[in-house]
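HUMAN: Would you supply a protein with fold tokens?

ASSISTANT:
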Amino acid sequence: MSAAAPPPVIVLVRPQLGENIGKAARAMLNFGLTELRLVAPRDGWPNPDAGPAASGADIVLARAEVFDTLADAVADCTTIYATTVRKRGVSKPVLTPEEAAKQVHATAGRSAYVFGPERSGLETDDVALAHTIVTVPINPEFGSLNLAQAVILLAYEWSKGIALASPPEVPLDPPAEHGEMEQLIQHFIRDLDAAGYFFPADRTEATLRTLRTALTKTGWSYNDIRMMHGIITILGRTPRPR
């Protein structure tokens, strides 16, 4: 059995704001990615604005590496994916994030997802260095993704191929025994009868059958039934204007 492919590295090329680097780190760690590489960050590194924006993804920031060029940042990678909305005159295979993630999992070597600066995106020379372009299918009338959004889309698609913990299931209350439901039905009948609901009298049997059918559809828990008893009781005590 072949070994699992290593997680991809996230490469931010000439990122402009420390806050955006922090948000990208947060997006990475949400989906199990921890290796962040920065190419010539505009404001240097470390950046004090990154920590608060990372919201606890400190391990990603602490391990972040800084490189002078994109070529240096991906020197140990065998497959490089340039994320861009345009081909910029460079002829490369184009994949969706889902297709790229499947390819990353099937690749023996280290892969890199490369993201450009917030304002302008990757330059033509950056894209030329990559093997493949990754483009997010997006609304053609509004194709605006920020850096962290782009990172989280690719990280999420990659994470679908690994075993991340699922959100804990909240246990549901077990349905109440039928005797509890029958007491609630009788409570309804008593108060509805006192309020003159069953009219005309020759329709009472059909109305009762409809009421019972509606209430027994729900699979109510004991707490649900107890709450309804309380509601019926309060309504019966509240004076109603005629």
